[in-house]
Amino acid sequence: MASPPGLGDDAEYEDESDGEYESGSEEVDDVSTCSSFSESDMPDHLVLPAELHRLVLACQTDGYHHVWGKYRFVCKAWKEHIEFLAKTEWIRNTTLYYPGEMIWDEKIGKVFLNGDFSFQRLEGDSAIFQVPDCAPEFQKQLIEICKRCSAPDVEVGDVVHDVEIPEMSVDWNTLTITCPWRPLIGRVMAEELRVDAYRKKAQHELMSASKRAKRTAPGGNVDFGTLMELYKNFTNKAQDGYVAVRIARRGKLDRAGDQRLKSARQAASMRGPFSPTLDVN
């Protein structure tokens, strides 16, 4: 998959890669090419105890998107346990947020209005998010700020995207968002898997460039400056993946939104590390 052309332009971008973005492809069960199968097809003596399944999963170090989009399709036991973790643990590390804004109050001076809706509870298959600590005198201004955005950004652990949340409803009087937890998790993970295709290509190019640099360096010792330049190129191409996937979904370039999401990912990574398969209960 090639890096997106014309990132310096505001023109619309047409994805020429093999992974064409299709409307609706972000649904929760369309994020893996792996075939699922039932444990009922396996001989009884080959079926592992549930505790061992969980132990094997807990030993892996891949990110949320691989766990949801790949491991979940290995077998029934893994699917059930991963969805259990998503519903009980991942959702607790999920925040919906609108970009905040600094305002001036005559009594107390500068005030930052935070549009973060933090997870509160589950009601059946619906997740409830709320702004817990907005002073009543600032609620009207906060609502006006939030309504300027079409939808909130979604942060699940250290994964951040601004995907549309199906069946989301907002009660502005109580600053409460309600949405089904499964499509929320699924759409964010599907978007990250699309970005991962760009990231893998960037990693391959980094390894190839590193080998070339080692072959040409005196004694095979690559200097620190060259290594830093290679890593800088890798991070830039990885970021291009986020931009390209977002352009393919939205149909146009949005520099401000890309920078906002980049900053949000950096902040989320500093709050980690997160373990998507570690059951803390």
Account of the protein in words:
With 281 residues, the chain is of the alpha+beta class. Among the domains are: 39-90; 94-181, no CATH class. The protein has seven helices and seven strands, in the order H-H-H-E-E-E-H-E-E-E-E-H-H-H. A seven-stranded antiparallel β-sheet has the order 5-4-1-2-3-7-6, sandwiched between helices. The chain is globular. The chain starts with 49 loop residues before the first helix and ends in a 10-residue tail after the last helix. 26% of the residues are buried. Residues 9-30 have a biased composition (Acidic residues). Residues 1-37, 256-281 are annotated as: Disordered.
Any descriptors?
single chain, 281 residues, alpha+beta, seven-stranded antiparallel β-sheet, 7 helices, 7 strands, globular, disordered N terminus
Compact summary:
With 281 residues, this protein is an alpha+beta fold.
Task: Provide the succession of SSEs.
Answer: HHHEEEHEEEEHHH
Number of helical regions:
7
Low-confidence stretches: 1-37
Strand order of the largest sheet: 5-4-1-2-3-7-6
Broad shape: globular
The amount of helix comes to 40-55%
Proportion of strand residues: 15-25%
Report the span from N to C terminus. Answer: 40 Å
Beta strand count: 7
Computed structural class: alpha+beta
Q: Describe the sheet with the most strands.
A: 7 strands, antiparallel
Secondary structure layout plus pairing:
Blueprint: H1 50-58, H2 64-69, H3 76-88, E1 94-105, E2 109-123, E3 126-130, H4 136-147, E4 153-156, E5 159-161, E6 169-171, E7 176-180, H5 181-216, H6 224-250, H7 255-271
Antiparallel strand pairs: 1-2, 1-4, 2-3, 3-7, 4-5, 6-7
